[in-house]
């Protein structure tokens, strides 16, 4: 596949990586060092450095780990007895290359590759003036909150990744270089690279894509940003955010951000939060309840009518969804919010958003179970509910891509279980993929791929057969047993009071 | 990726060749769509063409193992029904399918697909170890927050599904929330003020919010061009009727506090705000800028549409202004009312004081000016006496009159509408008549032809002619004058027939009879219109008998009008006949009975015995074929 060649030695790139021993004083942003993580050493890239009373701490991204595991580590966790990889500072060359290589990068394919390799494209700056050790790539201090902007580390631009897996230079070598050219004139001096970093074109494309498709996912440039919130207080829980979210920039200075569980308003001040709680009367998502069983309720909230609430929701969910973008407003979406109920109100557990009118036939845009409720089967209910809505609409649907890692696992599990359940029904002897799709509201593509992924679709003696493998059968039986013990948590379609909402073209376009 | 797809394309082409040459031997799944070009998996469009990739790899395998593939897998179409089997029912074959796994898009961002934990999880599920499929996430812990204090248990679930449309802003009260800093200030302030003029937290927040909102309204670009903090004079200027009195009262005291806090933040809003687009170049690159407006599609502009929207806007503005005006008036009225009530109260108090005074000073008078009700009653007659002349009644009248030029009265409008409707109806009627001119409705004719038309009326004799050989002498003075000399029934017949015409407006309704000779020489008497003498029955009553099949005459009762001319005449005639023709009296009596009887029986068929009608029967040419009622 040749995608993940970013870290030179990992894929055996011929590019020489400058290695050497570092001290705490010479470590700078972009350096890759071995860092203690859960009892083992992992290679990690330093993304930001800040000075504390008890010495510097480093924001590190573990190579090949999801960004949600990025964290601040004390210097003691960095193993300086091993060599570190230095970022490669070749700024002037980069610029030249940039101007020469402009043209070819217009090729969309190459840009896609560029997006793949985004990991190298930008490295967040350290926190303002606090970082003493930052090398060339550092930037004079700026007001709080701005420090998280991406800076292309020169080494990365020409770095290892411009070479494909098989060792031959890629045709698209230029794209990484090109990414910087658009902002050449904006660069006051070599040390002070302004934000837009590489992906000017990619980003424009991205925005164009957002504009035309109405999607709210994925914005590559925002991907490698240092988390801005430290901790979150919400309801009965303290939650650690996973990713960056554009809450007011002053929030990055406080240790704890308070989120009102019902209106999802945010506060950086405890007293203000308490005052707000004294006044706030909301006890459930501000929409119509469309589903209610003994455990949960679903509320339908219109992004246009409940703009503030939906914005709050998006800000919150961005903390846990890497590829969500809040670039555009929430108007063209409906939010289906799942709640548990008790005497204090309906507590948001998770939600999914859905385009009012999806050109691509997606039945779901973003989906999130709040971290404090994860691993309890709520995600499955959300997915199941999204398909229930599709059934009511009489459409086949699929979630918008890209999926997150957790999303992929959740969906695959749901797909497998749903299909197996159908296939295991007594007296079923044969079924077409189309039948499966119609019964589940899954797209035929998803049906087919699920069958293939779980090795259930095989060619046997000149015929295709669906094989109920021992694995899926045992999983199915396990699930049935579990349901017997714990009770089945399922969406009951008869409890859904919902008609597909109809939006006229003008209401979508003009917000009437 | 690239090399792989190149390979894929090679395969594709070779395979296509194979396909072309080989006869398809396998059964039910036809491959008619084989020839269509496969989507290029190399292109930016990453959606995999559905079943092909699989078909392909399998085919390659079979090709390589067994030579050019007789067993190349059939293409799998979505509609094709696939048998479901258990694993033990088939031979274990390939592990090569595992490699097709790579061909299936995960849908995860490419760069993240290779992430360590995801790969572990994917492989774990593939190998059937679900428990290993665990992706670590940062932890959440229970908060030490006083949850119960902050979230009171106030929720009671309604029986029906909740429907709700209030916004967050509607539910959160004053948007400004106090901080510790404000607390300190407020505490000091309230200590200074002492007991009476204390400022509550709500008032404080309302005031701060007023400052914030005014500042935002007057300096919308404060974040960009950093103007000085708004002066208090500007604040006062912005105070209009909508600002609460408390806010006005505390504003000047709190202003300095607000100003100092504003100064600290560089004249930014005190509440942390999201960054929205400002229209600057830096917007695009600023990760904090969010929720941009989506560009709307331009619709084509035409003059008509322009005018339309102008008109719409104008109307909208007018309506909004009107309603605003209305609200302002209502407010004015309520304020006035409030004043009046307090005035009344004051009056009452003063009067009771006067009363007390009077009592104290022992002043005795009629007390009328003291008692609340009475003076009021007194003053009220005053008012009414003035009212006819004074503004109170006339004012509205005048107002009405002034408006009358423009205003139409409801009755006028209604009358006009009514007449218009009538006119419309008339016009419609005329129109319909015109349309129907010369229109003959053949469908109106009964489906079975009317009985009357089927036989020749001439064959029937009118009953009277036969019965009245001589006119009654007594009471029929002039009408029967001419008849005494008529001895021949035939001669008399014509005359009487004429009379009968006089008596009955329609001759056809006169009872009439005819004689027929049936088979075997039977004589039959057919009669018509006997029922005509019956009085028109009340339609309701008639309805009662409509389906009554009762035949026996004992039970039958007939509604007959004893004073109907026909019957009276009939009776008179018979009686006269009885008197005059004494000889045939008995006979005639019997016959008269028989005459009256027919009215009771729908149909009488008699064998001939002493029938008085023979002449009539002879004259009529009995066509015999059709009976009169059939």
From TrEMBL, chain A:
Swiss-Prot/TrEMBL keywords: Acetylation, Activator, Chromatin regulator, Chromosome, DNA damage, DNA repair, Nucleus, Transcription, Transcription regulation, Transferase
Bias (Polar residues) ranges: 98-110
Disordered: annotated segments: 84-189
Listed EC numbers: 2.3.1.48
Molecular functions (GO terms): chromatin binding; histone acetyltransferase activity; transcription coregulator activity
Cellular location(s): Chromosome; Nucleus
Stretches assigned to the MYST-type HAT domain: 224-500
Active site location: 400
InterPro entries tied to this protein: Acyl_CoA_acyltransferase, Chromo-like_dom_sf, Chromo/chromo_shadow_dom, HAT_MYST-type, MYST_HAT, Tudor-knot, WH-like_DNA-bd_sf, Zf-MYST
Pfam families: MOZ_SAS (PF01853), Tudor-knot (PF11717), zf-MYST (PF17772)
GO biological process: DNA repair; regulation of transcription by RNA polymerase II
SUPFAM superfamilies: Acyl-CoA N-acyltransferases (Nat) (SSF55729), Chromo domain-like (SSF54160)
Catalytic activity: 2-hydroxyisobutanoyl-CoA + L-lysyl-[protein] = N(6)-(2-hydroxyisobutanoyl)-L-lysyl-[protein] + CoA + H(+); L-lysyl-[protein] + acetyl-CoA = N(6)-acetyl-L-lysyl-[protein] + CoA + H(+); L-lysyl-[histone] + acetyl-CoA = N(6)-acetyl-L-lysyl-[histone] + CoA + H(+); (2E)-butenoyl-CoA + L-lysyl-[protein] = N(6)-(2E)-butenoyl-L-lysyl-[protein] + CoA + H(+)
Role according to the record: Catalytic component of the NuA4 histone acetyltransferase (HAT) complex which is involved in epigenetic transcriptional activation of selected genes principally by acetylation of nucleosomal histones H4, H3, H2B, H2A and H2A variant H2A.Z. Acetylates histone H4 to form H4K5ac, H4K8ac, H4K12ac and H4K16ac, histone H3 to form H3K14ac, and histone H2A to form H2AK4ac and H2AK7ac. The NuA4 complex is involved in the DNA damage response and is required for chromosome segregation. The NuA4 complex plays a direct role in repair of DNA double-strand breaks (DSBs) through homologous recombination.
Family classification: Belongs to the MYST (SAS/MOZ) family.
Quaternary organization: Component of the NuA4 histone acetyltransferase complex.
Name used for this protein in its record: Histone acetyltransferase ESA1
From TrEMBL, chain B:
Pfam families linked: EPL1
Keyword Protease on entry: no
First-listed, main subcellular location of the protein, grouped into a coarse class: nucleus
Biased composition (Low complexity): 586-597, 616-630
Region feature Disordered, mapped onto this chain: 1-52, 354-391, 467-490, 586-630
Domain Enhancer of polycomb-like N-terminal: 73-213
This protein's GO CC annotations: NuA4 histone acetyltransferase complex; nucleus
Domain of life: Eukaryota
InterPro entries cross-referenced by the UniProt entry: Enhancer_polycomb (IPR024943), Enhancer_polycomb-like_N (IPR019542)
Compartment(s) where it occurs, according to its Swiss-Prot or TrEMBL record: Nucleus
Keyword terms: Nucleus, Transcription, Transcription regulation
GO biological process: regulation of transcription by RNA polymerase II
Family assignment from sequence similarity: Belongs to the enhancer of polycomb family.
Main function: Component of the NuA4 histone acetyltransferase complex which is involved in transcriptional activation of selected genes principally by acetylation of nucleosomal histone H4 and H2A. The NuA4 complex is also involved in DNA repair. Involved in gene silencing by neighboring heterochromatin, blockage of the silencing spreading along the chromosome, and required for cell cycle progression through G2/M.
Protein name: Enhancer of polycomb-like protein
Organism: Penicillium argentinense
């Amino acid at each position: 596949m040749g995608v993940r060649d970013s870290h030179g030695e990992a894929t055996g790139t011929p590019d020489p990586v400058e290695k050497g021993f570092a001290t705490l004083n010479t470590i700078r942003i972009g350096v890759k060092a071995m860092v203690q993580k859960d009892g083992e050493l992992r290679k990690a890239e330093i993304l930001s450095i800040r000075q504390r009373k008890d010495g510097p701490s480093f924001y590190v991204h573990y190579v090949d780990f999801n960004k949600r595991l990025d964290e601040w580590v004390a210097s003691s966790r960095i193993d300086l007895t091993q060599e570190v990889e230095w970022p490669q500072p070749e700024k002037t060359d980069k610029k030249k290359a940039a101007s020469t290589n402009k043209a070819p990068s217009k090729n969309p394919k190459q840009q896609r590759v560029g997006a793949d390799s985004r990991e190298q494209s930008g490295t967040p700056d350290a926190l303002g003036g606090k970082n003493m050790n930052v090398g060339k790539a550092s930037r004079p201090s700026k007001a709080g909150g701005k420090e998280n902007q991406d800076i292309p580390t020169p080494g990365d631009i020409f770095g290892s990744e411009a070479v494909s897996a098989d060792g031959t230079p890629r045709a698209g070598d230029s794209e990484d270089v090109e990414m910087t050219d658009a902002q050449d004139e904006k660069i006051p001096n070599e040390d002070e690279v302004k934000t837009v970093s590489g992906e000017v074109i990619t980003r424009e494309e991205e925005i164009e894509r957002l504009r035309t498709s109405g999607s709210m996912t994925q914005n590559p440039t925002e991907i490698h940003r240092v988390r801005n919130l430290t901790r979150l207080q919400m309801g009965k829980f303290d939650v650690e955010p996973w990713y960056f979210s554009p809450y007011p920039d002053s929030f990055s200075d406080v240790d704890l951000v308070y989120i009102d569980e019902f209106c999802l308003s945010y506060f950086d001040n405890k007293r203000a939060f308490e005052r707000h709680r004294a006044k706030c009367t909301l006890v459930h998502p501000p929409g119509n309840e469309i589903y209610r069983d003994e455990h949960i309720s679903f509320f339908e909230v219109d992004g246009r009518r409940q703009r503030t609430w939906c914005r709050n929701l998006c800000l919150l969910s961005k903390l846990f969804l890497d590829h969500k973008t809040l670039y555009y407003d929430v108007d063209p979406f409906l939010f289906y919010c799942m709640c548990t109920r008790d005497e204090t109100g309906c507590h948001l557990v998770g939600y999914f958003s859905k385009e009012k009118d999806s050109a691509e036939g997606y039945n779901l845009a973003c989906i999130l179970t709040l971290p404090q409720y994860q691993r309890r089967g709520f995600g499955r209910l959300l997915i199941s509910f999204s398909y229930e809505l599709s059934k009511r609409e009489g459409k086949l649907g699929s979630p918008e891509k890209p999926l997150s890692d957790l999303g992929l696992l959740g969906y695959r599990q749901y797909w497998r279980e749903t299909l197996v359940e159908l296939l295991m029904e007594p007296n079923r002897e044969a079924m077409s993929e189309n039948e499966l799709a119609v019964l589940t509201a899954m797209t035929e593509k998803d049906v087919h791929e699920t069958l293939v992924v779980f090795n259930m679709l095989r060619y046997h003696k000149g015929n295709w057969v669906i094989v109920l493998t021992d694995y899926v059968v045992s999983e199915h039986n396990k699930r049935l047993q579990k349901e017997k013990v714990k009770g089945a948590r399922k969406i009951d379609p008869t409890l859904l009071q919902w008609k597909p909402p109809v939006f006229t073209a003008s209401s979508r376009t003009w917000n009437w | 990726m690239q090399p792989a797809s190149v390979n894929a394309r090679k395969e594709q082409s070779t395979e296509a060749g194979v396909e072309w040459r080989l006869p398809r031997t396998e059964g039910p799944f036809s491959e008619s769509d084989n020839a269509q070009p496969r989507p290029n998996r190399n292109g930016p469009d990453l959606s995999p063409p559905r079943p092909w990739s699989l078909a392909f790899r399998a085919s390659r395998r079979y090709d390589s193992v067994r030579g050019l593939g007789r067993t190349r897998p059939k293409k799998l179409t979505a509609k094709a029904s696939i048998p479901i089997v258990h694993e033990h029912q088939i031979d274990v074959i390939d592990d090569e399918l595992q490699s097709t796994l790579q061909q299936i898009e995960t849908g995860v961002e490419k760069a993240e697909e290779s992430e360590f934990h995801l790969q572990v999880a994917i492989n774990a599920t593939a190998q059937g170890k679900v428990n290993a499929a665990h992706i670590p996430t940062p932890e959440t812990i229970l908060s030490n927050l006083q949850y119960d204090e902050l979230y009171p248990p106030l929720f009671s679930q309604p029986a029906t599904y909740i429907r709700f449309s209030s916004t967050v802003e509607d539910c959160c009260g004053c948007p400004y929330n106090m901080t510790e800093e404000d607390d300190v200030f407020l505490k000091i302030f309230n200590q200074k003020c002492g007991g009476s003029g204390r400022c509550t937290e709500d008032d404080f927040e309302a005031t701060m919010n007023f400052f914030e909102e005014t500042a935002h309204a007057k300096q919308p670009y404060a974040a960009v061009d950093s103007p000085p903090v708004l002066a208090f004079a500007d604040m006062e200027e912005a105070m209009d009727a909508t600002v609460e009195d408390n806010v006005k009262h505390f504003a000047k005291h709190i202003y300095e506090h607000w100003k100092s806090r504003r100064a600290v933040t560089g004249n930014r809003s005190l509440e942390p705000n999201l960054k929205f687009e400002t229209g600057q170049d830096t917007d695009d690159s600023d990760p904090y800028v969010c929720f941009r407006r989506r560009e709307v599609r331009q619709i084509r502009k035409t003059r008509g549409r322009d005018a339309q929207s102008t008109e719409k806007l104008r109307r909208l503005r007018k309506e909004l202004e009107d309603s605003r005006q209305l609200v302002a008036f209502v407010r004015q009225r309520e304020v006035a009312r409030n004043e009046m009530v307090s005035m009344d109260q004051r009056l009452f108090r003063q009067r009771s004081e006067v009363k007390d005074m009077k009592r104290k000073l022992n002043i005795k008078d009629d007390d009328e000016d003291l008692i609340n009700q009475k003076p009021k009653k007194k003053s009220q007659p005053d008012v009414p006496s003035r009212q006819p002349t004074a503004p109170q009644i006339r004012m509205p009248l005048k107002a009405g009159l002034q408006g009358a030029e423009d205003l139409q009265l409801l009755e006028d409008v209604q009358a006009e509408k009514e007449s218009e409707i009538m006119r419309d109806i008339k016009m419609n009627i005329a129109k319909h008549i015109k349309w129907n001119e010369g229109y003959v409705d053949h469908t109106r004719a009964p489906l079975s032809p009317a009985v009357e038309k089927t036989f020749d009326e001439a064959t029937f004799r009118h009953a009277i002619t036969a019965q009245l050989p001589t006119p009654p002498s007594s009471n029929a003075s002039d009408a029967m004058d001419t008849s005494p000399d008529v001895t021949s029934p035939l001669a008399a017949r014509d005359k009487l027939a004429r009379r009968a015409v006089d008596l009955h407006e329609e001759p056809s309704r006169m009872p009439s009879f005819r004689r027929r000779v049936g088979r075997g020489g039977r004589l039959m008497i057919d009669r018509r219109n006997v029922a005509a003498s019956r009085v028109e029955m009340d339609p309701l009553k008639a309805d009662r008998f409509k389906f009554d099949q009762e035949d026996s005459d004992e039970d039958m009762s007939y509604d007959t009008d004893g004073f109907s001319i026909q019957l009276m005449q009939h009776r008179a005639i018979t009686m006269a006949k009885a008197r005059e023709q004494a000889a045939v009296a008995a006979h005639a009596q019997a016959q008269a009975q028989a005459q009256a009887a027919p009215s009771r029986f729908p149909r009488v068929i008699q064998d001939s015995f002493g029938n008085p009608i023979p002449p009539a029967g002879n004259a009529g040419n009995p066509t015999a074929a059709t009976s009169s009622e059939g």
